[in-house]
Design goal:
Blueprint lengths: L2 H13 L5 H7 L2 H12 L3 E4 L9 E5 L1 H4 L1 H19 L2 H21 L4 E2 L7 E2 L3 H5 L1 H23 L6 H13 L7 H4 L6 H13 L2 H13 L9
Antiparallel strand pairs: 1-2, 3-4
Amino acid sequence: MYFGHFAVAAALKAAKPNVPALPLFIGAGVIDIVNGLMIAGGADVVRGNPNTLPYLYFDLVFIDWDHSLLMALIWSGLFALLCKVFYKSGRIAWFAFLCSMLHWCADVPVHNQDLALYPYSDIKFGWGWWEKYGEWSWVIEIVFMALLLAFAWWRSAKDNISLKWQTLFLSAVSLQMSPWLSPMKHIATLPDPAAYLLHGFLVTIGYIIPPLILVWVYARQNKTVKWYWA
């Protein structure tokens, strides 16, 4: 899952408007930020496969150092600790942790039995919707995103906050990550190490740049506080 994770953060932000957007939207991708770095560093292993739909085009051969349940808990906990130190708020830290772990939970339906219980465990999670439904799993993710954004829009409207730009941006991201426009489709055809290095790089920045853009949008809507508190 990709853009669906940001929709989870948007829904949480709408439900808890006093929680800053930054820890939520970065938290929604912490596990994959680490994943991209692990892939680029060679600790995680991916393999280009043009038949791996809907938009990844890489087989996730080994991603236990970030996407196993144990490591997801550890990375989420470390991120929450960082947020507690920075914001001096246990409440914000809790929601940062929650958003990060919801990433793992949202991955379970789509991943293809590659979410281990702990590194090198034979116990794997993943319902395999990517493999089972192919391009239609992208449509399922869009529906998932739409439902969450509809809730976020409704809840934010109560606080006189418009999510027009957030919705437009995430809609554009979902189209850009379609089975036809995904940059991974080309990168998967490259030889290693170029393929896995570029894959890791795009995964990491893909969970940093879009969240920061969304945080900037929220900050523009609330100029009474510093941007990282918006």
